[in-house]
Amino acid sequence: MAHHAEKLPWEALASVFELRRTNPCQHGAYNLHARIQPDSKTKLANFVQIFMQSVAEDAAQQRKQYPEKYDVPDENEVIISDEAATKIESTVWRWHPEEYWPDDDDDLNVFKQPTAVKLCPHIDESDKCGCVLPFRERKMSAFQRQQIPNDCYEFDTYNLESFRNVEVVKTLILHGEMDPILRSCAYEGSHLAKWWEHQECQCTSATLGWRRICENGIKMYMILNLLRYFPQTWNENGSPVDDYRKLKAYQQAARWCTESGYKSDIATYPHRDFLGIRKNQFRCYPRPLDVSRWKHVMEFDQFGFERYQKGLTYFDDSDYEPITKSSEKPGIKSGEESDDDSKAESSDDSSDESSGESSDDSEEEDPEEVRNRFYKLEFYPYGLMSYEDFLNFEKPMGFQPLPSDIKHVRWILCQQGLPVELSDCILEHADYTPRGRLPVPGKPLHPQCTDELGRYLEHCWQLIVRCYMLGHELREKMDIEALVREEVKDFVYELFKCECDGAYELLYGFDAEPPEDSEVES
Known about the structure:
Residues 323-369 are annotated as: Disordered. The protein is mostly helical. Helix content is 38%, strand content 4%.
């Protein structure tokens, strides 16, 4: 386990909960249930207080590694060094939009194609290139871009360049390259505080900011440490078991921290890489792959189905003529964009793929399949299925090669006479890469995974500390202590909430300052 864990009163926190095979107050899920006892609030409050103190202390200690005060860099100064740029470039590649071709308004003759292997050499301010990390993104001027309020569908028009810088900032946080970020904070007009939490418009979720890095780190750090104190879920008579993976809280935390479908996925990278969960395995608008199996936790959209039968789209007025051509569906993306992305950004799950189709279009379809499209989840059935069923709930998991598989396939290619470099290119093009870093895939609490788990928990802790340190640097513009405290509080409530009397008051009302004379065994 991460060495910071020993500072925290995990045993006291665990004593607030008991393991129940079924929880009628949580839709029958297998999960931990809060013990509503006189000292439960005090234990929770004390835990949060000590957690926050530990984060603040580590952030202060880490801040001492950097200059006490920075001068405001000139806008043309390169504040991301070659060393830092090289370190983060592989991660930037994961979210880079791959703009290898100029826009319609750009001159093809002056557009610079991306370079391979080395850093972007296009140092002139007028250069436009398709490099993964353009040179201009390393300058202070990139950190001075402003966040501009926008209406619906206007985010890219006003904030795309500013948002790109925030993506670079998130990447720097993941890699612990905090110096350029702290230097940029010396600029009085820095908008990083505003980017803690942001959304494309008022209609969408606030998923664009760097808050999610902190939030995801807290969730996985806390759930994996907490489960140590419920050994019956991972050890039975000295043999490893995997019951903890069936827990509602574990499945919920794992899904939240690896969920795809938003404009920014950077905050999910450490957790996908650790757990071996690929992009798009879990979507922001979930829908079960096997609707017939899960109808008991779904509701039927009668309104949408009736409009579909009339040939109307979901938002059409009843006086409108039915739309019968799929190409006339409002809100459908161009052929250049994936069906998955179109579905994920739909404002209503119940009308997926069918909101604009007429009844004539479905004459040859199975009527049951058509009706199934109009079922939507009432709640996500965490804790009601095995971990394997959970992974395949929305999409088949598919084959996951192990590191040993990669070595074997590379050996086979080399035996055919191919050089190692070409073999690696083939593996990369085929996306034949290991899923997850665990020696025993998908089982973080397995004894063979202890070392990797410790490294992962340490990384989660460092993500929390780095976010706190950045927020403290911007303390005149944001209250990072209150924001991080709220994330810890949210973890407790969201993963263990139930309908029992007193549960809300306990799980969401425990965050008052603990009494000075209270003593909780740690």
